[in-house]
Amino acid sequence: MKIIKVKDKSELSVLTGEMLIGLMLSKSTRYNLSITAGSTPAMTYKYMASQIRQSHAFDHVHYFNFDEIPSTDPNFIGITMRDLKKLYFDPAEISTKRIHHLDSSNYQVHDRKLAQVGGLDAMLLGIGKDGHYCGNLPGATNFEDQTVKVSAKGDLRKRICGHFSNSKLVPDHWITMGPRSVMATRKLILIATGIEKAEAIWHLVAGPVDKTYPASILKLHPDLTVIVDQEAATKI
Fold it and tell me: In this protein, which residues make up the domain named Glucosamine/galactosamine-6-phosphate isomerase (predicted)?
């Protein structure tokens, strides 16, 4: 594990963007990248979009979402893909031919299809204050899981309700690449900002591997880079 501590979110965003751009340019053949949605990478994607837009140097890069929260509305594309389109795919003018949507209809063949195209070269991850990453929330998945459909019941359903303005649109499940699938990625980059992430980062960096904090398994990955600002790094 490599830990990079930076001053603030602005510095983290540029550094992460430059790292991802460098990785994409490290190959001239197909590069498979999985990226996170959420607020933490927003500035990273803004920086990347300005560099990538209208450049053919990145035409070999293919993108995958690693989780998805669908909706009971069949015309809704999903929370993750909606956010990624707004944050990055549309501003960077990424061709739809290079965007591969993981959803409820194809999750069972996701790992097989990734293997057929060479596997994921890199994945950009965030981390929740409860230690979750992707859709791997405490109690939702097991360390040995590949890409799975998670039943959203009880407290787990409450966790996704905030994504919807109408409770009737809340689905009974979500899709995520499980720990086993994530660990098969060649390079992992995890970013975190803010004091509220400090405890989760401690469990990732210094704590034991514990399913109570799902991201703790990531410390076993052979190529993990953790980029944190001063607040998120408070406890390490």
Answer: 25-219
Alpha-carbon gap, residue 177 to 50, rounded angstroms: 29
Q: Which of 195, 194, 197, 220 is nearest to 209 (CA)?
A: 220
Q: Is 121 a catalytic residue?
A: no
DSSP assignment, residue 25?
H
Residue 218 — very low, low, confident or very high, per pLDDT cuts 50/70/90?
very high
| Active-site residue identified among 67, 83, 121, 229 | 67
**Burial, 75: exposed, middle or buried (Cβ in 10 Å; 0-12, 13-18, 19+)?**
exposed
Take residue 67 and report the two structure tokens written for it.
């989780």
Catalytic residue among 62, 110, 132, 221: 132
Predicted confidence at residue 158, as pLDDT, reads 76
Selecting among 103, 111, 130, 145, the annotated active-site residue is 130
Q: Which helix (H) or strand (E) holds 120?
A: none
- The domain spans of the chain are 2-229
Q: Which CATH code is given to the segment(s) 2-229?
A: 3.40.50.1360
State yes or no: is 67 an active-site residue.
yes
SS3 of residue 128 by DSSP: coil
Render pLDDT for 89-112 as a digit per residue (tens, 0 to 9): 999 999 999 999 999 999 999 999
Verify whether residue 8 is a known catalytic residue: no
